[in-house]
Design goal:
This protein has about 120 residues and is mostly beta strands. Helices cover about 0% and strands about 60% of the residues. Strands 2, 4, 5, 6, 9, 10 and 11 form a 7-stranded mixed beta sheet that branches. The chain has a 4-stranded antiparallel beta sheet with strand order 1-3-8-7, with no helix packed on it. A hairpin with a 3-residue loop joins strand 9 and strand 10.
């Protein structure tokens, strides 16, 4: 059974930094995509950043230049370094693991709250 667990959220002032971590466990395929999504109150969940097991990354335009996604394949972990945080970054951040077999399998963490005060 696959599990995904996030950590590292919290409260920070605008302009500050936070680092989120996500650990996956269970049957993890060597080829996968791991990433971060976020959902603010009253809004739909949106992609923040993703990275493939081969190292390709993709970012939402709103976080480019401020956030950096990285991963440790050996430890089955993905990280999100968030700098120059803005109040509009306030949301619940979810870690996602996507694996591919005959079907696409999505696994989500429980979410971690990030609050940026102005």
């Amino acid at each position: 059974q696959v599990q995904v667990v996030e950590s590292g959220g919290g409260l920070v002032q605008a302009g500050g930094s936070l680092r989120l971590s996500c650990a996956a466990s269970g049957s993890i395929f060597s080829t996968n995509v791991m990433g971060w999504y976020r959902q603010a109150p009253g809004k739909q969940r949106e992609l923040v950043a993703v990275t493939t097991s081969g190292g390709t990354t993709n970012y939402a335009d709103s976080v480019k230049g401020r956030f950096t996604i990285s991963r440790d394949n050996a430890k089955k972990m993905v990280f999100l370094q968030m700098n120059s945080l803005k109040p509009e970054d306030t949301a619940v951040y979810y870690c996602n693991l996507r694996q591919f077999s005959l079907h696409v399998y999505d696994y989500w963490g429980q979410g971690t709250q990030v609050t940026v005060s102005s």
